[in-house]
Amino acid sequence: MVAERPACLLSWSSGKDSAWTLHQLRERGEVEVVGLLTTLNESADRVAMHAVRRELLEAQAAAADLPLVAVDLPWPCSNEQYEARMAAACERAVAQGVSQMAFGDLFLEDIRAYREEKLAGSGLTPIFPLWGRPTEALARRMLADGLRSRITCVNPELAPAEWVGREWDAALLDELPEGVDPCGENGEFHTFVHAGPMFSAPVEIELGEVVERDGFRFADLLPRA
After folding, report:
1. What local confidence, expressed as pLDDT, does residue 1 receive?
2. For the chain, what is the radius of gyration of the CA atoms?
3. 39-48 tens-digit pLDDT
4. Could you tell me the pTM of the whole model?
5. Which of 102, 70, 98 lies closest to 86 in space, CA to CA?
């Protein structure tokens, strides 16, 4: 993983904000992204909260031409277990020459402060390339530049439940209810990116079963046969 520019791991959720962060980092050229760090529910073999299958995550990594650094988490997972496994992953990255970790966070101060606290003294410097950008303009820019994503999870208390499985597109942005962030930064919804300038080719998907679980509504995305 050693690079001439500072080597950077990208926290990868499979969604649009982390995918756009990859695109921005590559455009700026200040660091070299050397891997996508993702946590998975090891019992379901899916990305936590986004509920994306590992095989689709691996297809994204292949399309981005980057190795996937998977951190498997038990279910249920305590905060102590999460932090221990993430700390171990960070230690391995530092041993391989990585010096920075990038996040796609937009404006949640408590989340940023938590990340900075946990990485303090680890050898990894946290960076936030999208931080503070107005989310309406950011969302429109992502779409204009070819990012395509599908909504995989909705919190029905914060956004319309019928959005699950739908494309995150300009039509959806045009009908956002008042108080819903265009990028879902408050936890309204989560996405899976299947095409965009950060990928060499689209990740072909189709919509599977839609289920309700633990107060959320999930769409199961499948690799297109």
Report:
1. 46
2. 17
3. 999 888 999 7
4. 0.95
5. 70
| Token pair belonging to 186 | 């408050």
User: How does pLDDT run across 196-208, given as a tens digit for each residue?
Assistant: 999 999 999 999 9
In terms of Cα–Cα distance, which of 12, 8, 23, 51 is closest to 195?
A: 23
C-alpha 192/C-alpha 156 separation (Å) is 18
pLDDT tens figures, 74-88: 888 899 999 999 999
pLDDT at 162 over 70: yes
- Residue 75 confidence (pLDDT): 87
DSSP letters spanning 92-118: HHHHTTEEEEE----S-HHHHHHHHHH
Q: Count H helices, E strands: the chain?
A: 6, 11
Give the amino acid at 168: W
* Residues whose CB falls within 8 Å of the CB of residue 125, separated by 6 or more in sequence, listed in order: 99, 100, 101, 119
Cα distance between residue 131 and residue 21, in whole Å: 10
Measure the CA–CA gap between 127 and 103, rounded to whole angstroms.
6
pLDDT-derived band at 2 (thresholds 50, 70, 90) equals very low
CATH number attached to the domain at 7-223: 3.40.50.620
Residues in the chain: 225
Which DSSP string do the residues of 50-62 spell out, in sequence order? T--BHHHHHHHHH
